[in-house]
Amino acid sequence: MDGSAALDVIHPSGERTRIPIDPLPFRIGRGPDNHLILRDNRASRAHAWIVHDGGAMAIEDLESLHGTWVNGAQIHQPTQLISGDTVHFGFEDSYRLVFSDGDARIHRMLDQISSASSQTAGAAGSFARLRALVEVARTLQTSLAGDEVLGAVIEAALTLTGAERGFLLLRSDDELEIKVGRNRDGARLTDSDLEIPTSVIQRALTERRDLLSIRIGDEDDGAHAKQDFSNVICVPLVQFRGLSAEETMSLSSQTNTVGLLYLDSRTQQRPLSELNRELLHTLALEASTVLENTKLVEEERQKLLLEQELGFARKIQQALLPREFPMTGWFCAAGSTLPFAEVAGDYFDVHPTGSDTWAAVIADVSGKGISSALLASLLQGAFLLGSELGAPLDDVTEKMNHFLIDRTQRERYATLFYARIHRNGEIEWVNAGHCAPLAVRANGSVEMLPTSGAPVGLLPDPEFKVSRLKLGPGDKIVAYSDGLAEAQNSRNELFEDKLGSLLAQLAGQNAQQIHDQLLHAAEEFREGEPLRDDVTVLVLEFRGEQG
User: Fold this and answer.
1) 121: domain range?
2) What CATH number is given to the structural domain containing 76?
3) What is the pLDDT of residues 197-215, one digit of tens each?
4) Which of 133-137, 285-289, 314-318, 464-468 has the highest mean pLDDT?
5) For the CA atoms of 505, 509, 513, 518, what is the dihedral angle to 10 degrees?
6) How many domains does the chain have?
7) Are strands 73-74 and 79-81 parallel, antiparallel or unpaired?
């Protein structure tokens, strides 16, 4: 058995990865020195291993605590594995392994093709070759594009055509690169063994469709003509993901191929029969399937890695938000951010700057994604530092404006509402292009706090005006991002239009209750319509000395 056998590892989370069984013995267990580490405390440190057993592979339990199971039965001695066997380790909710020896199956099928070709003539021989090739195709459909699998494709093609050498070339941008080469004896061939320049093959591929026969003749330059090839066959590997069988046969070889199968001979070969031509096409289509399946698996792996990284980024971002809010005393607050994507370009913060003052900020960075989230975190740190130093609000905002322009060249900007609330009920703020917060008075009246400047990072020298307002006991400031204001329902109505009247009804509730009711009302208003932006809500409540 060759070294391309593999395990499909199904993690407890449902994630699936493929691991080659190499080297042998292949150790499995909880310990860090295993080739496959089972991150499950119920598994033994050295649980099992896979070893050679004649011409096959076998799994053996290493006196583990909970045992090793193959296809639902516990094993007590080395047990040979065949493709599709399922292995688990005593618990159905732990790791599961699916064994695959696709390459060995392919080579057994190739032997059948060769035997059918040499021992049986006529229609019976053709039927035998067809049946064997179907088995190869089935195995290819469950394989990934390792060199041994692709080498088996070449060997099958050599058997069908009687050619002496074969190469599988893959398209890389506008060029063809050799992936695998074999001769009729199964020996590996390298780039230097392909004596016809790939540019000649590329030219033939772009000028023709279907099965290509190339004759190297006087029209080529001397470097090409000295290669005395009597027969050259090229079979395009068609990119047919998502297309019907009829569509794949009409595609342009120039624009819809992932590569080609190249076969050549120095000796004159008999013309291919119609059946062998069809079999060769079938083999090429199956090779294309293998290549595209491999690409899909890699794309899924990259997607999973990205999702994991975004998940980590979101956890870090959430950790930077306030963990606790003031709930007693003269000042209370409540807030949250609901990201549109994995990470948010919104942020907010609330923190004390002394026994008599609290600072609060809510910001919305332009754009979406990782870059906006990073900039939001940067702004959060800068404003936290500015508040701790007690610098005037307009000075801190101006410094952030210059910093963003220097670093982002005006490619990114942010709107923000930056405020300080004092024990005497005075609130001072700078509003740099942000949604105008609403002051909700205890008596139910609602007033808008005016904007006082452009977004930070947009203009070189804007003026940021500090505004002030006196709050009474029970008054609240409700700040929010445009993701809340611009939430829409199926009738294209905006939540912003009902925000004032809703807050007037909620005036008698505390900060946390208003926060919760506001988000609940927005969700009901959307009627299932998706979010279009991050939604951030921050409620500041002045309770006065009686609080």
Assistant:
1) 103-297
2) 2.60.200.20
3) 777 777 766 665 555 555 5
4) 464-468
5) 20
6) 3
7) unpaired
